[in-house]
Structure formats: structure tokens, C-alpha cells
Amino acid sequence: MIIVRGYQSKGGLCLPICIANGRDITFPDGSKVFMGSSGTGAPRDGADPREPKRK
Question: 20 lies in a domain?
Fold first, then answer.
């Protein structure tokens, strides 16, 4: 069995085609592949102290 872990968009109005963000895939042998980005993908809001300051 292959397991894909990720997150669906919050808005339910996207049906039948919704937006999602993948996190990782687990293969039958137990190996994992991380497929996320180094950032959250969320818009900058100043909540993450590592974000560059807006100009």
C-alpha cells in the first residue's frame, strides 16, 4: 500500500477539483519521500519569525 500524506484546502467550494499540498509518501517497503517545500506555502503574515520582512 502507498500512503500519501498532505493537506486539502479549507474551502469546500472547490469541488470537484480541490487544491491540496502534499507532505510525504510512504512506500510498501516503509521508505518515505518528503515532497513538501522548505516553506509552509502560506501567504506571509509575519507569524513566522524566519520570514523575510516585507519591504
Answer: yes
**Residue range 23-31: average pLDDT?**
92
Number of domains composing the chain: 1
14 φ/ψ angles, rounded to the nearest 5 degrees: -80, -10
Q: What is the pTM of this model?
A: 0.49
Domain that holds residue 9: 3-34
Q: In b/e form, how buried is each residue of 14-49, taking b as 16+ CB within 10 angstroms?
A: eeeeeeeeeeeeeeeeeeeeeeeeeeeeeeeeeeee
